[in-house]
Structures are given as C-alpha cells and as structure tokens.
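Board notes, transcribed. Complex of a protein with L-homoserine.
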Amino acid sequence: MRIGLMGFGVVGRGVYELAASRSDMEIVRVLCRRDLSLPDADVTHDARDILNDPSIDTVVETIGGLHPAWDYVRAAIEAGKNVVTANKAMVAEFYDELIPLVERKGVLFRCTAAVGGGIGWLSALERARRMESIREISGIMNGTCNYILDSMTRLGLGYDEALSQAQSLGYAEADPTTDVDGIDTWHKLIVSSNVAFGVSLDKSGVPVWGIRNILASDVSNFKEHGLCCKLIATGRMQGGHFSAFVQPTLFPSFAPESAVPTNFNLITLIGNTSGRQSFFGQGAGRYPTAYNVAEDLADLICGHGFYSPCSESVPVHNHETFQFYVRGASDEWLESHTELHWGDAVVTVPVSVAQMHRWCASHPNVFMAAMPERKDIHC
Ligand code: HSE
C-alpha cells in the first residue's frame, strides 16, 4: 500500500510513526503546511503532488475541518484512490455525497477513528447492523468534555484549568469551543446514527447543548444529590421515527457512565437481537486515534471498505421528555415548568427535548442537564 498522508498534526504524526513499523504500509508523501523533513517520505505543500501521483493508491486525511479536507478527499476518490480519514466534521457534513461517491467510484473508504478515538466503535457498529436492527446508540463521545467534567467532579479543578490541561494533552480540537459547545459530539452523533440506522439524518433537526456554562456550584449540587454529569449523545429509532440530540446528562453515581475517567469514551448500542453492547476506551489523543487509522488501513489491505448504506435525508423529531436541571436564567416559561428548587437552580417537570433546547437557544448563558432517565436495561 502506497500512502499519501495529508496533515501532520497530532494524529497525522501518530499515523506516520505507526506506519513506519509496518512493511505493508508505506507513506511515500506527506502534505504539511510547515517546512519539515522526514527520513522516509517526501514532504510537500501542494496536495496535487499526492492527488496526481498514480503510484499512490491510498490517501489518509488527518487535516480536520471541512475545507480543504473535503476538496482533497473528493478529488482523491474521483482519482480512484482509497481513503481513510479521522475527520468527523467532514464525514458528518458530506455523508450523503461521500458514501454514494465512494460506491460510484468503487474505491475503499473507512473512517473508524472519526468517532471514539481509539475505540473500534464504528467498525463494531457497521458489523452489528448487518445482522440486526439497532434501535439506540448513546454515550460519551468527546474526550475533552469528559476530561473537564471528570476533573471538576473528582479533583475539584476549575473549568478553565481542566480545559487547558485537556488542550495540552492533545485531546481538544484546534478550536476547543467545538468540544465544549458539543459540536464535536454532534458530528460524532450524526456519523454514528447514519451508520447505525442506514440513513442520512436531517442535521438541522438535531439539537446540541454543551458544557461551557457549567460551574463548580453545579458540580457540588450534583454531588449532594448523588449524581454525576456527562455530555451525552443519543440517537434512537422507533417505529421508523428518529430522535437525536446532544445534551449534558446526569447519572446516578453507580451508573457505568459515572465511572468513565479522564479522556475516555463509553458508547453503547442497543440492538433488537444482541441487546446492549458498550464500548469503552480512549476517545482522543495521538496514538489511540492513529491506531484506528492504522486499523482501517489494515482493513483496506484486506479489501474491507465501509459498507453502510445511506438513504435519503430523514427528519428528526425530539418528542421524548426528560426532567431538566437548569441554572442561570429564569422567565415565565421556566417558572411555570419548575417542579423543584436546588439552590439557585431548578428541576423542571418533564418537558420534551425539542422544547427544552428551543428555550435554551434564547438563553445562551444557562447550564442545563437532563435528569437521569428511567430506562430498562436490556440484557
Ligand atoms: N477533540 C476530540 C475529543 C478529539 O476530545 O474527543 C477526538 O475526536
């Protein structure tokens, strides 16, 4: 396999190092903005040196973001090259163009590292959906947010200190607001839901609320009530209807989610045949993420591309209800939906996800979290 590596940041460098130890993966050229010299590969500033080189059969994209990453990936596929990417934003955004293009050109494509860092979540998910109908996916999909929430809860760190530690450990996105506002989790939810349900979700119907407004006083409130806060993505399919949302969510301290430390992710699927399967591992960082890129390359060598189908765009309806913890604003609507007061915060009566997120959108400084759900555990 002769590889053109696009991007030489946290993940790209990790891929380069892992491939160097393999006799079946030769990185022949690296696209990098910086001037750099590498012992075993040419370095170029011009993507055409990779795209127009017929000896390169596979492109690995680790640039991140939408452009120019998507332009290069599309051009690589058009040129008949196989592609592996870790880029969740690009896969989420261009899913319904990308998957049909891959099929049309007959190339191989994989993106396991796009969700779950070092966990083989997407690979397990696409295998699971061959055999059964998946009705729910959910979990902790962002290592940076988990690192922040875990550090605030277990170590009593302040939000800013925890975020800057996550950045210096290489977990955060180039723009960490993408992590703390839940956008990174949102991208991962879109990709995971599309794979799980064989659809292309209408992204405009998927609401997201992040953790940027959480305070130490919220964490104390939760601890007093035996609860732990995590940023959770949920996608469900019931009777042909889809719901999908990202929101801070409270768990009792005995729940598996509460025990997830540092940058780890815990992602669960619930299938009609297999029941519940959960996947746990490092969700961010150079080597865990590079590991899954290398696993995808190994799959390509065996001829295994990504085989999840992609239907037309399907609408999302978030009618399901939760009680919500809310702090930081008040108005008539919130007062009329309040059931309990917890210090300077309130706990609402059950309201729909759609309604809660609509209210939050006009109250940008609030912190809210869904109260624990009473769910059956399907074994
Ligand atoms: N910023 C992401 C995270 C990197 O913290 O999970 C892995 O996708």
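The radius of gyration is 21 Å. The first strand starts at residue 2 and ends at 6.
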